[in-house]
Amino acid sequence: MPTRDLLSTSPHSLTEERFETLLSRPGLSLQRIVSPPAFRSRPFLQPEDEWVLLLQGQATLDLDGEQIELRQGESLLIAAGTPHRVITTSTNPLCIWIALHLPEAGR
Questions:
Q1: Under the phi-then-psi rule, with left for phi > 0, alpha for psi from -120 to 50, and beta for the rest, what region is 82?
Q2: How does pLDDT run across 46-73, given as a tens digit for each residue?
Q3: What is the pTM of this model?
Q4: Which residues 6+ apart lie within 8 Å of 7 measured at CB?
Q5: Is domain 30-102 classified as CATH 1.10.357.10?
């Protein structure tokens, strides 16, 4: 099985987030996300829990009205049904995330 560099970024400029599915199983999805500089997302409201790990960069999230600062190496569990969005991301280096979507506990 070939190895993969999760910190590599494409040389072309990003204007939207880039999503790459690393693993998919019934009820589970693991994604790598690269955010453009100073990115601001639309609001999200997902039916599943989402665990995010910021591999590189810094980001500010709005988690149901509370601002959360994430730095490289920090993670956060976002419970299903919690409104959230990215307020901003670092410019240099770009933000690279790992996101794990999984069913709510007990389902």
A1: beta
A2: 999 999 999 999 999 999 999 999 999 9
A3: 0.87
A4: 55, 56, 96
A5: no
